[in-house]
Specification:
single chain; 393 residues; Rossmann fold; Dihydrodipicolinate Reductase, domain 2; 2 domains; seven-stranded mixed sheet; oxidoreductase activity; oxidoreductase; NAD(P)-bd_dom_sf; Gfo/Idh/MocA-like_OxRdtase_N; Dehydrogenase
Length: 393
């Protein structure tokens, strides 16, 4: 039986667009034809498209018109208009995290440290609402590209929950490393926040997803987040911070450390950390404590492969793992980083859904809950950790 052919269009030409392109090479459930890419930076677009032999589109509307599935791999400040435009043309849209947010009032004086976080919460949820409304009116669907959801360890935990009937009673998790790839990261007007949204969206999405999955398995209804208490800190911007050159310090008006305490509808909890202050590579993990089992999901690093070299020169041409500062000594090499992180799994699932109508694990409902939780978290942090109710759409 011949596989259905779907046309993919990539909006963006940076880090996310590159790993989307690589993940598309491992979609096996359908035939994917990458029609091309668009980026407002013509130089970056040429650098992205030429070596991959892709068409460089002149504008985003032209790319959407020539695609069945649109990949939004751009800074989050641009997500809403691209997602809505794709849905209005009845196209499926894969949107990178963070889903959306609040990016200021457009004034040159806007400062992420000083604006009203209650106002930010309101505007972020209005953005979410507009995107959900566009999806309801469209033949296309929103596919929330949260790779943690599709990481094999998280999907195995979902299977455990479904087959054991367990109740998750508490979770611990973290995403941290020494700083983002993005040049715009660290400015609220581009990123919609700092570590809480840029890093925290990952373990938070996984935690909320597992409570969604647990509720559906046990009661036929997702268990959703109810309230949050959070704190944020800008450690590298303190005058007392000792900069030794290993951590990125270019944050202008965003936090580089966040702690989230989330309470779900059933009274169970999740404690999550997100930061730019960890050396030694990416630190991505989620621990799930239930009524009949306990699971530790190590997304990155993991011990599937470990290697030692007495001098870094021997590994100069070897990719070891994301964000590591040195290759000398022992390294936790990831033999297939995209597989462990869930990139190819999510992409294959999205294209199965686009081709055959299968339900997806990482949908707009999850994306909405994550943004609602994060921006309620920013309001809580503004109030020095006071509990804030989460708006559920």
């Amino acid at each position: 039986m011949e596989k259905k052919v779907l046309r993919a269009g990539l909006v963006g030409s940076g880090f996310a667009a590159k790993f989307h392109f690589e993940a598309l090479q491992r979609v096996f459930s359908t035939r994917v034809e990458i029609t091309g890419a668009y980026s407002p930076s013509s130089d970056n677009l040429v650098k992205f498209t030429e070596p991959r032999n892709l068409r460089a589109f002149e504008n985003v509307d032209q790319l959407i018109e020539n695609s069945d599935v649109v990949h939004v791999c751009t800074p989050p400040v641009t997500h809403e208009p691209i997602v809505v435009a794709a849905l209005q043309q009845n196209k499926h849209v894969i949107v990178e995290k963070p889903f959306t947010g609040y990016f200021g009032d457009g004034s040159t004086s806007f400062n992420g440290d000083t604006f009203s976080k209650e106002e930010g919460l309101h505007h972020a949820m209005e953005s979410v609402r507009r995107m959900l409304d566009a999806e309801k009116a469209s033949e296309g669907k929103i596919m929330y590209a949260e790779n943690w959801v599709y990481a094999p360890a998280i999907q195995k935990e979902r299977e455990l929950l479904q087959k054991t009937g367990a109740q998750i009673i508490w979770m611990n998790g973290e995403e941290s490393h020494s700083g983002s790839h993005s040049l715009t990261y660290g400015q609220w007007k581009f990123s919609g926040g700092g570590s809480m949204i840029g890093k925290g969206c990952h373990p938070l999405s996984a935690a909320i997803y597992l409570k969604h999955a647990e509720g559906r398995a046990r009661n036929g209804r997702a268990i959703r987040p109810k309230s949050i208490s959070a704190r944020t800190h800008a450690i590298t911007r303190m005058p007392t911070f000792k900069d030794e050159g290993y951590l990125r310090t270019t944050y202008k008006d965003t936090e580089d450390f966040a702690m989230l305490h989330v309470v779900f509808e059933d009274g169970t909890i999740a404690n999550l950390i997100a930061s730019e202050l960890v050396l030694g590579g990416v630190h991505n993990w989620l621990e799930v404590n239930t009524t009949n089992h306990r699971t530790i999901c190590n997304i990155n690093p993991n011990t599937s492969m470990q290697a030692y070299t007495p001098a870094q020169k021997h590994f100069e041409e070897v990719y070891v793992v994301e964000k590591t500062e040195t290759k000398q000594g022992w390294s936790s090499i990831s033999p297939d980083e995209g597989w462990f992180a869930g990139y190819q799994h999510e992409m294959d699932a999205f294209y199965r859904s686009a081709a055959f109508g299968e339900l997806i694990e990482s949908d707009s409902s999850l994306a909405s809950d994550v943004i609602a939780t994060i921006y309620a978290g920013y309001l809580s942090a503004e109030r020095k950790g006071a509990e804030v109710a989460i708006t559920i759409l």
